Amino acid sequence: MPMTDTRKAFLQIHLCVVLWGFTAILGKLITLPALPLVWWRMGLVVLALALVPRVWRGLRALPPKLLLAYAGIGVLVSLHWLTFYGSIKLANASVGATCMALATVFTALAEPKLAGRRFSARELGLGIAVLPGVALVVGGVPVDMRLGIAVGALSAFFVALFGSLNKRLVERTDPLTMTAVELGAGTLALTALAPLMAVAFPVFGGDVFVLPGLRDGLLLLALAFACTLFPFALSLVALRHMSAFAAQLAVNLEPVYAIVLAILLLGEQHELDPGFYAGVVIILGAVVAYPLLVRPQRIEHVEVLATGESKDVTSG
Fold first, then answer.
1. Mutual angle of helices 254-266 and 93-100, in 10-degree steps
2. More confident residue, 256 or 150
3. Does residue 311 belong to any structural domain of this protein?
4. Which of 187, 216, 158 is nearest to 39 (CA)?
5. Phi, psi at 138, each rounded to 5°
6. Does 315 reside within a domain?
7. Torsions phi, psi of 63, nearest 5?
8. Given CB 3.0 to 4.6 Å as the disulfide criterion, which of 93, 121, 198, 233 pairs with 28?
9. Average pLDDT rounded to a whole number, residues 44-60
10. C-alpha angle 232/82/186, rounded to 5°?
């Protein structure tokens, strides 16, 4: 029986979500501190996008004011990735992935203000429903990992900020150009922050100009291309043949995949107690309930999803 376009799209989007789930695993396996890890990841993606003529055409047509706006969003993207991998380094991949589920909570509060969308009481209700899960997650990890939870929550907050701003400005230029500008600006911002981070936050800091070792280099290539550019391109193909509702349900499973992969590949179940997993169930229950309770929207310019670990394919 031949595979239909819809079934193929369903398999493609789930492959994308699994690959996105590997970002947390690779972040744990790469021995670089958070700052050089993110610097290399962003830089490699920018170099790849620089080879696309469409990006340069879009850049030449971009008004200076809009260029600065995208650059500012890119700084938020870089801070998101920096704190995301910082959370993983301070705790583990399961904790970092779980914290990303909080992005839906923060977005419910930030998006109406930043993107000019009407406030939703249902979204706020889901955000409040997540709080008991957060309490269980915090109580279910060793004390020395709790700083990782705080940093992960900050990372989710940055997702809400740049995701909402992206929604407001996504219509203004070619999405590939927008992504290149944001990641390029983020790379420059991390370069400028490197000396300060080394002194003020040594747990995140590190020399960004030192070439990674062979093992870290190969893992960085996988992170940049297999977990960023490839699923980015594949998601564009899949989303032509499936609804926003179906895509949202699939993408909401990313933290689940990340936690399962962390258990299978890193043995992290030995570091966490049952309270952590009970909290994860509550948080993910609220996240999965989101598209069931909120009216699905049309997918527009999904290309900008590649800039975040926590994606919301209905946000346009």
1. 180
2. 150
3. no
4. 187
5. -60, -40
6. no
7. -65, 145
8. 93
9. 93
10. 65
**Residue found under tokens 């169930």:** 281
Structural domain contains residue 73: yes
199 burial class (0-12, 13-18, 19+ CB within 10 angstroms)?
exposed
Q: How far is 242 from 247, CA to CA, in rounded Å? A: 7
| Closest to 296 (Cα-Cα) out of 243, 249, 245, 260 | 245
Calpha distance 213→288 (Å, rounded):
39
Task: List the structure tokens of 226.
Answer: 């297999």
Q: Which long-range contacts (CB under 8 A, 24 or more apart) does 73-76 make?
A: 73/162, 73/165, 73/166, 73/169, 73/182, 73/185, 74/181, 74/182, 74/183, 74/184, 74/185, 74/186, 74/189, 75/185, 75/186, 75/189, 76/158, 76/161, 76/162, 76/165
Cβ contact 158:304 at 8 Å: no
Q: What tens digit of pLDDT does each residue of 208-244 get?
A: 888 999 999 999 999 999 998 888 778 767 867 776 5
Residue 74 lies in a domain: yes
- 114-130: pLDDT as tens digits: 767 777 777 778 777 87
For the question of whether the overall pTM of this predicted structure is more than 0.90, the answer is no
Q: Which two tokens stand for residue 151?
A: 């940093």
Instruction: Give the amino acid at 91.
Output: A
For the chain, the farthest-separated pair of C-alpha atoms sits apart, in whole angstroms, at 61
Question: Around Cβ 52, how many Cβ atoms within 10 Å?
Answer: 13
**Which of 303, 237, 281 minimizes the C-alpha distance to 45?**
303
Lookup result for tokens 């907050």: 157
Q: Which of 314, 313, 310 is nearest to 106 (CA)?
A: 310
For 172-175, the CB contacts below 8 A with 24+ separation are: 172/66, 173/58, 173/61, 173/62, 173/66, 173/70, 174/54, 174/55, 174/57, 174/58, 175/301, 175/303, 175/304
Q: Give the domain range for residue 10.
A: 5-306
